[in-house]
Amino acid sequence: MNLKGRSFLTLKDYSPEEISYLLDLAAELKAKKKQGITGNSLKGKNIALIFEKPSTRTRCSFTIGCIDEGGHPEYLGKEDIQLGHKESVEDTARVLGRMFDGIEFRGFSQETVEKLAKYSGVPVWNGLTDLYHPTQILADFLTMREHLGALKGKKLVFAGDGRNNMANSLMIGSAKMGVHFTILAPEELWPQESLVALCREYAKESGSEITITKELDAVKGADVIYTDVWCSMGEEDKAAERVALLRPYQVNAELMARTGKDGTILLHCLPAVKGNEVTADVFEKYADVVFDEAENRMHTIKAVMVATLGNLDA
Ligand code: CP
Ligand code: NVA
Fold first, then answer.
1. Measured at the alpha carbon of residue 250, what is the angle toward residues 224 and 126, in degrees to the nearest 5?
2. pLDDT tens, N- to C-terminus, the chain (314 residues)
3. Could you give phi then psi for residue 119, rounded to 5 degrees?
4. Which ligand approaches the C-alpha of residue 106 most closely?
5. CB neighbourhood size of 4 (10 A)
6. Would you say the CB of residue 165 lies under 6 angstroms from ligand 2?
């Protein structure tokens, strides 16, 4: 599999085989790191990390993943560069593309990350936009593989804001990989119909079933219950409205019991607001899995950089 030179902007651009390859590579890099073995595949590579929004996991994963492979990461926060204020995205992209070998972008607009890729001429990786969070899905799927085995045929239910970046990306990834995917949310927070239709097309190929519902009974038989904050970054003014809409969809002991299964796991991309989308007791019960998932951000992000930019023979 050769992904050299490719950007990673949304999972829509990646085939199931390519996604599987990234998961396999991440598992291999993780096993090596556990034995104290890191690589040199990014030796001599300079990597820009642009963050318009804050981050713990994604920033640390890109930084450590890059350094583990011999590269140099450079953090560029929103107050540090001219991007979008004094200088157009196109011009910043052309400057950074002359200096850096790869660019990570976290921010608001998906259009910005796409422009960066178009104009910089180097691989660009989406570290989260309002629409998508594709690197997170790789960590989620690696964690599912570790805890539950093969992805195909597993049932994943996302309870919460069904039109946020996580719901969108989980739906795309699940539809591609044959994971049965349910969004459990009030109708006001259902995903865009056009994205659901696209995912149903992917699902025809993979055998996945996509369900969008407001009925709590939909969690029956779930292998994974997934949740995320009720207000994403940039939506802080919507807090009261979201609490009112989403309170019935909180992941609590009662909702977990409705799965009717013992082996169901909880996943959460983090950070978590305990008492809102998940209760503290349920979170603690599944904390080991959730923090495996957080750790897997690093191994999977490293795999994306190595596959698209690295020299695997180094
Ligand atoms: N899950 C995730 O993207 O976390 P950060 O916002 O801390 O990067
Ligand atoms: N939906 C959340 C994800 C955080 C990783 C947000 O965008 O804030």
1. 60
2. 999 999 999 999 999 999 999 999 999 999 999 999 999 999 999 999 999 999 999 999 999 999 999 999 999 999 899 887 789 999 999 999 999 999 999 999 999 999 999 999 999 999 999 999 999 999 999 999 999 999 999 999 999 999 999 999 999 999 999 999 999 999 999 999 999 999 999 999 999 999 999 999 999 999 999 999 999 999 999 999 999 999 999 999 999 999 999 999 999 999 999 999 999 999 999 999 999 999 999 999 999 999 999 997 77
3. -95, -20
4. 1
5. 12
6. yes
Which of 229, 226, 219 lies closest to 274 in space, CA to CA? 229
Measured from the alpha carbon of residue 63, the closest ligand is: 1
Q: Which residue in the block uniquely carries the two structure tokens 């199931």?
A: 16
- Indicate whether residue 57 lines ligand 1 (CB < 6 A): yes
Among candidates 206, 132, 126, which has minimal Cα distance to 169? 132
Distance from residue 56's CA to the centre of ligand 1 (Å): 5
Q: Is 269 in the pocket of ligand 1 (CB under 6 A)?
A: yes
What DSSP state is assigned to residue 72? Answer: E
Q: Which residues of 15-39 are buried (b: 16+ CB within 10 A; e: fewer)?
A: ebebbbbbbebbbebbeebeeeebb
State residue 155 phi and psi, 5-degree precision. Answer: -110, 120
DSSP states of 184-213: E--GGGPPPHHHHHHHHHHHHHHT--EEEE
Ligand 2 center to residue 205 CA distance, Å? 29
State the alpha helices, DSSP H only, in the chain.
16-34, 57-68, 89-99, 110-120, 134-148, 165-177, 193-206, 239-246, 253-257, 280-285, 287-309
- Tokens encoding 250: 């909180």
**3-class SS of residue 73:** strand
> Between the CA of residue 284 and those of 117, 267, 287, what are the distances in Å?
40, 12, 5
